[in-house]
Amino acid sequence: MIKTVAGTIDSSRHSDCIDKAWTDVEERFATMVRRIDDCVGDLIITFQDLEIDQNTMVVFTSDNGPHCESCLKAFDYASTSFESFGPFDGIKRDLWEGGIRMPTLVHFPAVVSPTTIDFRFVLIRNTNEKEKSCQSSHANLGC
């Protein structure tokens, strides 16, 4: 959106994100997602070129739920844009499933089949006493 802290708004749009009857903010959002997708693809191709892709795990995750705030103060953004909450109800900061689920993709060819889909809830809990003390102290960098 903004190339520098004091810069002007970047008006570029990805060619896949224009002429679709989307709002200005939706085009910008879709362009951002497309750029991230392209960069992750470039990273995976780099791993392939280095011949380390089969045993390198790439994890891509996002924060929970769609939002209703616009990146541009003068424009609105609907949380229903692109139906990013899927079949669930709720948006960011809601306790509904659509507001608390966190999407995660894993690329790890030697271990995970490309067609694997797993909707189970994953909960990682620290039970080690040292790990518990690390959770309560941000200053402890030895964790």
Automatic annotation (TrEMBL):
Q: What is this protein called?
A: Sulfatase
Q: Which residues form a coiled coil?
A: none
- Gene3D superfamilies attached to this UniProt entry: Alkaline Phosphatase, subunit A
Segments crossing the lipid bilayer: none
Lineage of source species: Bacteria, Pseudomonadati, Planctomycetota, Planctomycetia, Pirellulales
According to the entry, every stretch annotated as the Sulfatase N-terminal domain falls at 25-114
Could you tell me which Pfam families the record lists for this protein?
Sulfatase
- Supply the InterPro entries for this chain: Alkaline_phosphatase_core_sf, GAG_Ulvan_Degrading_Sulfatases, Sulfatase_N
